[in-house]
Amino acid sequence: MDLGISGKWAIVCASSKGLGRGCAEALAEAGVNLVMNARSEGPLNEAADAIRSAHGVEVTAVASDVTTPEGREAILAACGAPDILVNNAGGPPPGMWTDWDREDFIKALDGNMLAPIAMIKATVPGMMDRGWGRVVNITSQSVKSPIPVLGLSNSARAGLTGYVAGTSRQVAGKGVTINNLLPGIHATDRAVSLDTGVAEREGITLDEARTKREATIPVGRYGTASEFGHTCAFLCSQHAGFIVGQNLLLDGGAVNSTL
What is the structure's pLDDT at 47? Predict the structure, then answer.
């Protein structure tokens, strides 16, 4: 399927690896030029070079922390008029409700709520002026079904979801859509980190922890960054203009709900 977005420009945050990298790859495959961002310059440049070589699109790498004002300024300076924004940032650490104080919540909000809102506010007005734009926020299945050990993430991502629910309806008439992708467990470094925590707590191997978690997923496996990225690319396509303010689960059926 031709997604109809070849030649457009996208900012993809936290895209040197994992789900962000999957989104960058899929957009580049569709002919989209990229501004890729991550905190670590080496891995980011390697990912940018690989995508540039594989797909022949323009790729600008910006090594900065999107959760800080200075990091966002650097990203935005590299792409003055983006057509597409993919918001993404690493999730806060796991723990229990007794572990966290105010500063922990502020850090989580900065990373997973306030930073994507700031990027939306910086880019969407220009999209509206041009009459077309796509914003996709990578959040979490915990928005639909809270995960006890991820209380910081549950809280921050729920706040972003509420913001998108209202904002998306206000900008849709100008040709701009904002939607959220809610990943379940995918085969990324984040999954390794979570599985390592389970293994240490329960005194089992990492492989055993992964097998145990896979058994809770109806499809019987973890998702891949590639299939996640291609779903993101579709939401960014010309064909998705009637999808507004939605929260799309990519979790292999792990969240058991009717709606």
Answer: 98
Round to whole Å and give the CA distance between 37 and 15: 6
Task: Write the single-letter amino acid at 199.
Answer: A
Are the C-beta atoms of 64 and 71 separated by less than 8 Å?
yes
Average pLDDT score over residue span 16-37: 98
* Sign for the pseudo-dihedral over CA of 142, 147, 149, 152: positive
Q: What is the pLDDT of residue 94?
A: 82
Neighbours of 131 (CB within 10 A): 9
Residue ranges of E strands in 64-124:
84-87
Report the alpha-carbon angle 130-51-31, nearest 5.
Answer: 35
Name beta bridge partners: 136.
86, 179
Q: Is the pLDDT of residue 92 over 90?
A: no
Classify each residue of 73-85 as buried b or exposed e, where b means 16 or more C-beta atoms within 10 Å of its C-beta. ebbbebbeebbbb
b/e string for 224-233 if b means 16 or more Cβ within 10 A?
ebeebbbbbb
DSSP 8-class letter at 223: B
Residue 101, token pair as written in the block: 């104080």
How many residues belong to the chain? 259
Lookup result for tokens 């999808």: 243
Collapsing DSSP to helix, strand or coil, 207 comes out as helix
Neighbour tally for 136: CB within 10 Å: 27
The bridge status of strand 133-138 relative to strand 33-38 is unpaired
Return the closest-CA partner of residue 104 out of 149, 151, 72: 151
- DSSP code, position 238: G
- In this structure, the number of other CB atoms found within 10 A of the CB of residue 103 comes to 8
